[in-house]
Write a structure and sequence with these properties.
Length: about 400
């Protein structure tokens, strides 16, 4: 892996690294979107979007919030992959403005027109793909090009979402495309960082059984996952899809068991990565049950989106924010509270589908847990990301290091 290069940055620290603004704004957007979604769900609030309320909610989570987190991670990792200079300052601020413009355009698309909203919204991921491809090719780091290919697929899904919602009245296939891409990204990236971070910590703090590093088995599981997800995109309720989903769910459980997550309970910053990944096989198995007619399809989708995507993004955001700002890699009480909130939110959201008799209560628990987790991240980590580490440590309840 190439070593990262850096340049002195004299501006606002928020724009010194890609993860800073994109993690912070993604967390704020995730929390506020769900605060708006709950009254929209009950018909108490409406937005001037060309999308139906459900589609607005799905789009802003799948093609709004998650691309921001992915971009923050990607452009922080690429300098390490390639040894090239990071995107900073004006270029980073401009990219952030394009993302924000997409959020406004989607919300106001009934006023400005669906086609114009599509162009504005799609411009962000198009720029991300172009910039990431340029950096990876210039750095000769071909092994990480599949990540960019998946982001390109996410862009295609976003364009398809706008077209499908306009011409068909509601998005369907494009939702499954986006969810599938996110699951493959988690399987690919999570499958590299979780055993790596776990091994590094265990060697230092808890010697003994170590995780199995990424190998042929992992590649086979990702390949099988892609096959099952393609079947799910094409025919989600087909029996063959159900069988594939069930088999892949078991394979992911085996994969997770090889990473020695049971030996990380002393460090919640590490344990949460394993907990978040549990929702990947959980989602496959729930979608298998949906294909067999045993559950509504939304149970598996929410296991993946609220569970796997929600938990893994917070796990990566908290760890990267601490590590890349020179803080100790350990979960403070505030950070652990964020983790509890997102796991409760994910479980409650799945249970709201599985146990409809208590759906309203569970839906509120899920919504407020999600909001607490993401706005909690913004409050606790916002000062750190904006360049005030001592204030952030005080909010987290961590003693500041002596001068």
């Amino acid at each position: 892996m190439a070593g990262a290069r850096s340049r002195n940055f004299a501006g606002w620290p928020l724009f010194a690294n890609s993860f800073r603004p994109f993690f912070l704004l993604a967390a704020i957007q995730a929390g506020l979107s769900i605060l708006a979604w709950l009254p929209m769900f009950y018909g108490e609030l409406s937005v001037t979007s060309a999308f139906a309320p459900r589609d607005w909610h799905v789009h802003e989570m799948l093609y709004g919030f998650l691309p921001s987190v992915i971009t923050g991670f990607l452009f922080t990792a690429i300098p390490n992959w390639t040894g090239r200079l990071p995107i900073q300052g004006t270029s980073l601020a401009a990219l952030l403005v394009v993302w924000l413009a997409g959020r406004v355009a989607v919300t106001l698309s009934a006023e400005i027109g669906w086609a114009f909203a599509l162009i504005v919204d799609a411009a962000f991921l198009a720029l991300v793909v172009a910039a990431a491809t340029r950096e990876i090719i210039a750095g000769g780091n071909w092994r990480n090009l599949p990540v960019v290919v998946l982001v390109l697929m996410l862009l295609s899904g976003n364009v398809g979402f706008h077209l499908e919602a306009h011409y068909e009245g509601a998005a369907d296939v494009s939702i499954r495309v986006g969810v599938s891409v996110v699951m493959l990204l988690i399987a690919l990236i999570g499958g590299r960082i979780i055993p790596s971070f776990t091994r590094n910590w265990l060697v230092k703090f808890n010697p003994g059984r170590l995780p199995v590093p990424f190998g042929r088995f992992d590649g086979a599981v990702i390949g099988a996952s892609a096959l099952a997800l393609i079947a799910w995109i094409a025919a989600p309720l087909n029996m063959v899809t159900g069988v594939l989903m069930a088999v892949v769910g078991v394979l992911h459980l085996v994969r997770l068991a090889r990473w020695a997550g049971d030996r990380t309970t002393r460090e919640r910053l590490l344990l949460i990565l394993h907990v978040g990944y549990v929702f990947v096989p959980f989602g496959f198995i729930l979608n298998a049950l949906a294909a067999f007619g045993e559950l509504p399809p939304s149970a598996g989708i929410h296991a993946w989106m609220a569970g796997a995507a929600g938990t893994m993004t917070l796990a990566v955001m908290t760890r990267a924010s601490l590590g890349h700002t020179g803080q100790a890699l350990t979960a403070s009480p505030a950070t652990q509270s964020i983790y509890v909130a997102i796991v409760v939110a994910a479980l409650a959201r799945v249970c709201a589908v599985v146990v409809p008799a208590h759906g309203d209560v569970l839906l509120h628990v899920a919504a407020f847990g999600w909001v607490a987790a993401f706005l909690g991240f913004a409050v606790a980590f916002g000062p750190l990301l904006a360049g005030s580490p001592r204030r952030a440590l005080a909010i987290m309840g961590v003693p500041a290091p002596a001068r």
